[in-house]
Write a structure and sequence with these properties.
Layout lengths: L1 H23 L10 H16 L4 H22 L2 H22 L1
Length: 101
């Protein structure tokens, strides 16, 4: 049951944020909906924004770094920690997109 919940929550995060993240770096939204592919997208956007000379993009990359950590930890965390990790990831993703846009 926990694995399914984790998968459903990752799918919801992907549905909310993948298109905006991909648009930031002008790449197509990945078709594969696995948690690992979504985390890879977050990390790719983080790395590109981090290399920018724009301060707001560098700030956004810090939020994406935190989001990637939370998402990765949620894959292996005990069920009790999963909800709070994914909620923190969502907050960091939302803040990063708002800062970078």
């Amino acid at each position: 049951m926990a694995v399914q919940t984790r998968t459903d929550t990752f799918a919801a995060l992907r549905a909310c944020f993948a298109a905006d993240l991909a648009a930031l770096i002008e790449v197509p939204v990945p078709r594969d909906a696995t948690p690992d592919v979504f985390i890879d997208l977050v990390e790719e956007v983080r790395d590109i924004l981090r290399s920018s000379s724009l301060g707001t993009w560098q700030d956004a990359s810090e939020d994406l770094d935190r989001a990637a950590d939370c998402l990765t930890d949620a894959l292996t965390s005990p069920d009790a920690d999963q909800g709070s990790l994914l909620a923190r990831a969502r907050t960091h993703l939302r803040d990063a997109i708002a800062t970078a846009s």
